[in-house]
Write a structure and sequence with these properties.
It is built from ten helices and seven strands. With about 260 residues, it is an alpha+beta fold. The chain has two domains: about 5-105, Ubiquitin-like (UB roll); about 115-250, Fumarate Reductase Iron-sulfur Protein, Chain B, domain 2, CATH 1.10.1060.10. Strands 2-1-5-3-4 form a five-stranded mixed β-sheet. Strands 6-7 form a two-stranded antiparallel ribbon. A hairpin with a 2-residue loop joins β3 (about 65-70) and β4 (about 70-75).
Length: about 260
């Protein structure tokens, strides 16, 4: 027989604002290899069919089941109950719009963020469907792929102190996304173009350096490294008229594809 787990789950439906938010208690017997995803489904199937939470892939790929688990953002499908104490408290991710209980709307936030940072390849080349794809060095392609592994679960945003205080902060996931285009040789944007997007306190200079984003990322993306690289790039760009070009080029030293 497994442990008797006590779940305290945040409950609130914005469609019934007359009912105040509360924490509701559920108890469940633990089974081998039980994840929070399995536990929540058992609670919904056996105890409370009204419980709302998101899921899709159950394999840590879709990012739908992001939530705050005992005060720490994470994925329910990646979290085994054996790694948690008997008392488990679950809350929805902050920052995002609450849809109900543990469900939040990450889609609108990420879509707006992608539009704000212009998350696409900028090139003056006309598309030619008959022309072979541009070849790329394998090491660079792997580096770009590493930054492209973000599943947009929202855990880094929910853990971010700045994002909790201001709605216009783009967060680590957007800065990581821009870093991906910064090293892509197909993107023709200059450091000045990137500076215009993130060179203020809604972007890279709004980061307080707490690095909770890097600590909670379920895919272990190198968010800390990218924050440092992009901060250095926009800082050098901000003093372009003061520091000689040869010094800027030496300081850049981050694999930038443009001449700085």
């Amino acid at each position: 027989m497994g442990r008797n787990l006590k779940f305290e789950i945040f409950r609130y439906n914005p469609l019934t604002p007359d009912i105040q938010p509360c924490m509701r208690t559920y108890r469940l017997e633990e089974h081998p290899s039980m994840t929070l995803f399995i536990a929540l489904n058992m609670i919904r199937e056996r105890q409370d069919a009204s419980l709302q939470f998101d899921f899709c892939c159950r394999a840590g790929i879709c990012g739908s089941c992001g939530m705050v688990i005992n005060g720490r953002p994470g994925l329910a499908c990646h979290t085994q109950t054996c790694d948690l104490p008997n008392h488990i408290a679950l809350h929805p991710l902050p920052v995002f719009k609450l849809l109900g209980d543990l469900c939040v709307d990450t889609g609108v936030w990420f879509r707006n963020m992608g539009t704000k940072i212009e998350s696409w390849i900028h090139t003056a080349k006309a598309f030619e469907p008959s022309v072979p794809e541009e070849r790329m060095d394998n090491a660079l392609a792997n580096h770009i792929f590493e930054l492209d592994r973000c599943i947009e679960c929202g855990c880094c945003v929910g853990a971010c102190g700045t994002a909790r205080m201001r709605e216009d902060f783009i967060g680590a996931t957007a800065i990581n996304r821009l870093a991906r285009f910064h090293i892509d040789p197909r993107d023709n944007r200059s450091p000045a173009d990137f500076y215009d997007i993130i060179g203020d306190d809604t972007g890279i200079f709004g980061c307080m350096g707490l690095l909770a984003c890097d600590n909670v990322c379920p895919k272990n993306l190198p968010l800390q490294d990218q924050l440092g690289i992009m901060r250095r790039m926009v800082t050098i760009e901000s003093v372009r008229g003061i520091i000689p070009a040869f010094i800027r080029n030496k300081l850049q030293g981050c694999g930038c594809k443009q001449k700085c």
